[in-house]
Every structure is written in structure tokens, then in C-alpha cells.
Amino acid sequence: MTYTTKQWQEMDAAHFLHPFTNHKALHAEGARIITRAKGVYLWDSEDRKILDGMAGLWSAAVGHCHPELVEAATKQMGELSYYNAFFKTATTPAIALAHRIAELTGQRFRHVFFASSGSEAVDSIIRTMRHYWTLAGEPSRQIIIGRHYGYHGSTIAGSAAGGMADMHKQAGHVPGFSHIMAPYWYGLGGDETPEAFGLRAAAALEDRILELGPENVAGFLAEPLQGAGGVIIPPSTYWPEIQRICRKYNILLAADEVICGFGRTGRWFGSDTFQIEADLMSVAKGLTSGYIPLSAMLVGKRVADMLIAEGGEYYHGFTYSGHPVACAVALANLDVIERERLVDKAAVQGEKLRAALRDRLADHPLVGEIRGVGLVGAIELSADKRTRAFFPEEADVGMRCRNHCFRNDFVMRAVRDTMIFAPPFIIDDEQIGEFVARAAHAIDLTLAEVKDAGLY
Predict the structure, then answer these.
(1) Number of domains in the chain
(2) Which one of 46, 82, 216, 316 is at 20 to 30 Å from 200 when CA atoms are compared?
(3) Is the dihedral of CA 199, 203, 205, 206 positive or negative?
């Protein structure tokens, strides 16, 4: 049966609860119904062509509807559509993918635990950190330290580990978590150089460890760059000092690479970009380019040796851990990324995109900073470029800009008044030009709107 856009919207409002959505506002406006996609473009139910500047949700590295990934899923479904990894059994796609991931990490992570979402991978890290210290004879080490603006998923544990205050309000207080400042120079650095600020932001970890007592801290969980927090890219001094502090106090370090992993930063992993030597790593989105849900916790030697030698039964797992179809799609996705050299392309096209944005927008009165690494970046909208001042929160300037993007068939995301982007790795030079033109147009419209509202 064929439905009109209005009928789809009515059914949506009647039955579908969306993630991270004000449903009263959504129902008043009506959802945009996406019906198909190809490459870097989406089409809606009105057949409007949309430039996808967010790769879905940081995910579609190889672009939308790549035929090799579709074929891999179809083939695997015809051979073994599903089996679990319980009962001392395994499937060949899961084994092959675990081996492939270990190779891609240079054997830094030789053991892989599969789940379905980034949130599940992070939950697995939290659980495994605490279990490790119990096995090591230090069961008091339970506290996980995260960062303000950190995002580690939407489960109870993931949202507690993250630093999003609104999520904490809805989930309620969860003990065993603590948060320190983010390495957000643009918003918090004041008159300091980025390098000096990076050291101060890292020192907050040592201060918190000493406050809590090293004997009570299990580990530090952090994204190489903070994606959903506004693409916060740490100064060069930050991660080396974080690494030193973790080693000094013998706490575990976990890198949440759900966004960064598999090429987004122009290297295979964000840990490569920022030279992070983590004990545990979570990955998801780019693993299958979002085609089928799949995530993983990667486990380094220190933790894996303890789990295997001393842990007995690992009382943790999911029905879909190592799902054969998802793993087959991931293998095909990695084949495409390697063969088409998309990690290198992400680095090159990312530089081109930022350069083009700066050429067009560096002098724009609303634009305070354009930053990024690889094919992930941000445009800070500022009330005063000189002082890096933000607009009042109630002005909702970022959301105004996002709405102008959507109305003009372009997807960028707003975090506070920061416009963030992460297009597919396959974006070409012509599409970069289109991206910049649409971003500039949306920002021009936003400036006019805030001037009309007396906000600028």
C-alpha cells in the first residue's frame, strides 16, 4: 500500500517514539520521511534530494546503499541468517571479523567482544573494568571518571559515564561515576594558549583521582575527540598528559571510538591520531557504515590476560553478540574502505572541506571558529568573535541554523550553538562545494534571523 507524506506523518505521530526528540514539537511539525539514499544523498517522501552532512549519524563511511554491502548481507542471510555465540559455539564471520579487527589495530587489541550498539560496547567496558579490579584483588576500584560534554550512549551506565547533564536529569543519579572538565579550549580556554589549557584540562584528571582516592578509581573513559559534545578536539598537550596520569596511578584507560573508529579522523582509529594507548576500546558506527547494527569492545593484553586466566565464566553477553550477518557486512565494509583507500580520502577531503569553509566563512560575523580533523568538524556560532562569547542559551541559535539547513535540504547537526558535520568518506570535490554553499546559506539566514530578533 502507498501512503502520502501526511499519512506517514500521522502514523509516525500515533505510534513511533523517536530518540532525542521533543515529541510535542515533532507532532506539531510532522516528521520528515526519508525513503531512499545513495552515496552522500538522501531522498524524502516528497522526492526532495538532501545532502547528508552527517553520514546518517556519523556512520555511513562508504556512503549509502553500497552494492557490496547489500550483497554481503544477502549472501550471508542465505547461508546462515543467525546463530548465537553462547554454548561454546562460534560462526565463521564473527571469527574472521575479530581477526581482521585485531590486525587493523596492529595487535594492540587481540580480543574482541561483539555487541549491537555503541551503548552496549561502552556498558561492556564499564562492567569489564570493574570486574578486572575485582580479579586483581582491588575490588574497591569501582569509580569510572568521564568528562563534561562526553557522550557514551543512552543506556543507564552509558549515560551515567557520559557528561550530558540533561541525560543525567532523566536517568537519575547513578553512583560510581565522576566527571571532569572537557578539553574545550574555544569555550573554556579564556586567555590561555591551547597548549597551556590542554595541560590544565588534563590536570583535572589527576586532581579528581586524588580527591576520590586512587584505590577507588577503576578507570578513565573518554572519546579521542568529543563528538556529540560538539566536536571538541583536544589541544596537542592533552592526551600525552592524560596518558602519563593514568599510568602514574595505575588506572585503566578506555577510548570510546564509536565515532572515531575506522577512519573518521583520517587514521584508522582516533587513538592513532592522538597517540592514545588504551587498555579497552569501544567501536561501532563505522564498523558496518551503519548498514546493520554492530559494535565491539576491544580488549588489550593486560585486561584480556586477567579475564582469560583468572576470570572463570564471563557472565556477560547478548543474543546478537557476533551476529553472522552483521559481521559479514562489516567484513565487506572493511574491504571497501581498504580497497578504495577511504581512510586516506577522509584525511584529504577533510582538509579540503575545512579549507573551503574557511575561505567562505572565516570572516562571517557569526562564525567564531572552524575546526576539525579527518572528516569530522565543527563551526562555532558566536555572539562575539573577539571574545568567543556565546549567545544566551534561550536564543537557541544553533537550532535556528539547523532548521535552516533542513529546510534547504542539507543535514548538519546543532550542539548548543555549534554546527557539527561528518559526511561520508566518499564525498567528492563538487559535493564539497555544494556542502560549503549550503552551510553558508544556512548561516546567512541564521544571521538575518538573530538580527531580526535583536540578538545580534
Answers:
(1) 2
(2) 216
(3) positive
DSSP for 110-171, please give it.
Answer: EEEEEESSHHHHHHHHHHHHHHHHHHTT-TT--EEEEETT----SSHHHHHHS--HHHHHHH
DSSP assignment of 405-447 equals: HHHTTEE-EEETTEEEE---TT--HHHHHHHHHHHHHHHHHHH
* Residue 426 near residue 268, CB atoms below 8 Å: no
Interatomic CA distance for residues 73 and 273, integer angstroms: 31
Domain limits at 190?
68-339
Interatomic CA distance for residues 75 and 287, integer angstroms: 19
Strand partners for 179: 146
Instruction: Return d(Cα 98, Cα 390) in angstroms, integer.
Output: 45
Could you give the CA distance from residue 7 to residue 12 in angstroms, rounded to a whole number?
8
The distance of Cα 340 from the centroid of its chain, to the nearest Å, equals: 23
Asked if residue 8 belongs to a domain, the reply is: no
pLDDT digits (tens, 9 = 90+) for 386-433: 999 999 999 999 999 999 999 999 999 999 999 999 999 999 999 999
- Taking the model in full, what pTM does it have? 0.96
How many residues are given for the chain? 456
Domain annotation covers residue 17: no
